[in-house]
Amino acid sequence: MKKILFFIMAIILMFTSFGNIGYAASAKPPNIKKIKPLGEYTVTATSLYIRKGPSAKYKTLGYVKKNKKVKVYEIKKSWAYITYGSTKGYVSSKYLKKVTAKKKPTIVKKNTTSKVKKAIGERIVNATTLYVRKGPGTKYKSVGYLKKNKKVKIYEIKGNWVYIIDGKLKGYVSKTYLKTVKKPTPVKKTAPKPKPKPVAKPNPKPAPKPTPATSKPKPTTPTVNGHGKSYGQRIVNVSELNVRKTRSTKGKPVGVLKKGTKVTMYDVKSGWAYVTSGKIAGYVSTQYLQSTTPANRKIIVIDAGHGGKDPGASGNKLVEKEVTLNVAQRVEKLLKSAGIEVVMTRTGDTYPTLEDRIDTGVKANADTFVSIHCNFFSKASANGTETYYHNGGPADRANHSKQLATFINERLVQAIDTTNRGVKKEEYRVINSNPLAAVLVELGFLSNKQDASKLASNKYRDIAAKAIYQGILDYYKYIGK
Predict the structure, then answer these.
(1) Are the beta carbons of 443 and 372 closer than 8 angstroms?
(2) Does 203 score more than 70 pLDDT?
(3) Cα dihedral: 246, 239, 228, 332 (round 10)
(4) How many CA atoms lie within 13 A of 58 on its CB side?
(5) Average pLDDT of the chain, as a whole number
(6) What does the pLDDT read at residue 8?
(7) Dist. CA 155–CA 453, nearest whole Å
C-alpha cells in the first residue's frame, strides 16, 4: 500500500514540475527585433506596473502613468509584452487601450487664380478676427486671417463656406462672418445753378503765423482693438521670447522680447496671451510670463481636480471630483482667514479644461498654483501620499515649485498618517505649462481601504486641508512673503 502511495505522489510531483516548466517557458519574452509591434496603446490605469513575467507574482521593473503611450508586441492570456522608453516587460492588458489612427481629412483642392475666371461679388468681414482655412471647414488648417471691416472678393460659395482671395491670401472663410457690400444710392443730377456775380471784397489781413508747438506729440501705442481688457503687466522670464502674429508656435514672428521686459497683457486663452510692449504687439506663450504680484500680496490658485463630465478616479464608494472639491474649499477658507487672496478654478461640479485652469492663474496675476487630486491603482495594497512638480522653465520657478511640493507633502504625511511616497517630477499639463510655482497633490489612494476611509471622513478632510494650508504658509515664509 505504501509503495502505491509513493508512486502516486511521484507522478503528481512530476506533473507539477512539468507545469512549472511550461509556465516559465511561457514567460520567455518575444524577440522584438524580429517581430513587428501590434501597435501603440494608451494606459488607462492611474499607474500600471511593468513586470518581468506575465503574472502579478513577477518582480516589477517600473510603472507607466495614465494616458502614456506604450508599444505592444504580444498579448497572451490578458498579459501584454510592451516597451516604454528603455523598459521592457509585461503589463495587464486590461488597462491598455489601442490608439486608433486618425483619419486624414479629404483634401479639397484649392482654387487658383488661373482657374477662377471672375469674382462673383464682394463682402466685408464683420468678425474681430476671421481665420482663412485651406478647405471649407474648421478641421482644415488656417493659412492666415482677416481683420474686421476688411473688404474681400469672393469667387465660390460651398454651403456655409466662401472661397476668397485677398492679395496673396487665398482660402475658405465662414459665410456667417461676412456681410454684403451695400451699393451706393445713385445721386440724381440737377441743372447747375447760375453763378452769382462776384462781389468786390476788401483785402483781408494776412493770418497770423501759428505759434510753434512746445510739447512733443504723444507716441502712438499698439492697437489692441478686439483683444479685450488689460490684465495688467507681466515680466518676460526667458532670455528671448518670440512674439507671434497668431496664437501658435507656427505663427509668423513679429518681434522678440528680452528677459526682464515688461509687457501689458490682454486676451488670455489656451496658454497664449496678446501682449504689447512699445511698438511690438502680438501673441506669446504665457508659460514665459512672470507675475508681478507685489511683495506684500499673496495670490494663490486652488485647483480642485476633475469635475463635471470628468469624475476622476472612484473606489470604496468615493468619487475623486467630490473629494477634491470638498478639500479644496476647506483649504480656501483657511487661506482667506490668513489674509491670502484665493482664486478657485471651480466652485461646483463643473469641468474647466486644463488650459482654463492655467489661464485662471495667469489672468489673476497669481504667484502660486496648487492642484488637489486623489490616486488610484488596480492593486488595492497601493497606498500613501505623493506630490508632483515640474522641473522645466526658469530655474527660480522650478526651485520654487520643488520647495512648495516638499513643504505640502511633509505636512500632509505627518498630519493624516499615510505612507510617504515622496516628492516627484512629472509632466502633468497643469504644472508643466504653468508659469507659476505649481504643484499637484495626490492625497491618497481611493482604491485602498485605509486611505479611502480617511478621505471619507470630515475629520481627516479638515486635517488634510489644514496640512496643505500650513505647507503653503511654509512656502510663503521660504520666499519671504
Answers:
(1) yes
(2) no
(3) 120
(4) 20
(5) 83
(6) 54
(7) 67
